[in-house]
Amino acid sequence: MSSIRKAEQVYYPGATNGGLPTATAEKPSQMEYTKKVLDWVCVQLAITAAFCFVTYSNRDSVIDYLAKNPGSIWFPVIVSFITLFCMYKTEDTETRKCMFFVFTFAMSGMVSVSVLQYSPDVVFKAVVTTAIMVFAINRYSKRAAERGERMDKMAEVGGSLLLVLIVVSILQIFIRSSILGLVICIMGIGIFTILLMADLNRIYQKDEDFQEDPMLAAIGIYLDIVNLFLYLLELYDRCEGKGN
Fold first, then answer.
1. Is 147 left (phi over 0), alpha (psi -120 to 50) or beta?
2. What dihedral angle (degrees, nearest 10) is formed by the CA atoms of 226, 231, 233, 234?
3. 24, 51, 91, 174: most buried by Cβ count inside 10 Å?
């Protein structure tokens, strides 16, 4: 899930250590930087969509495999955490890129398995709603950045609410209340809308003293969108009377 991210290094193409500038490195324009970030996000979303399509098309066989091998569902979870940690620790650009794709494949596997429990109608509604919301949030964040409006405070609020959401979600495991489940869905949608808005606003800002590595910035936005989609799935499912 998303968190409050502050870049620890300045990103410059050509920097040998992936951070501080070299004599030949030049800071890219904000437009170039933003394009790189969004390009990486599009790559991640395309991979995830492909995974979900293939998995859902073979829904019965995948469910049968998972029923026979329940432990396999933890493999992508573990891989995603390890690769994400490695991405933030490594300074080698090629290693970071490799970890980026492994992380994306692992997350795509997790999302595609999560989608299996929902009906085609619910999945379609969630996909369309997510696309509309992301488009609107992106436009709003860009316009706000162009007006010089910063959303750092909003990001802090979203991060704090995210911690509350995690605690409430853990309680739901034991309480299993349908009303609390609905509240969690609504909270999740609201929180990740806030975080996505703040993350997009950050990459559109033109007065930043730093530029976070595009792949790391893309991961934050990607996770915001994925979580938004998953909470919309659950909300639509509950609205159809199928939620627990």
1. alpha
2. 150
3. 51
Digit-coded pLDDT (tens) for 133-169: 999 999 999 999 999 899 989 999 999 999 999 999 9
Dig out the tokens for 148 from the structure.
Answer: 């010089």
**Six-digit token string for 18:** 């992936």
With 0.85 as the threshold, say if the pTM is over it.
yes
- CA–CA separation, 229 and 189 (whole Å): 8
How buried is residue 174: exposed, middle or buried, by Cβ count under 10 Å (0-12/13-18/19+)? Answer: exposed
| E strand or H helix at 188 | helix 178-204
CA atoms 206, 209, 215, 220: torsion sign: negative
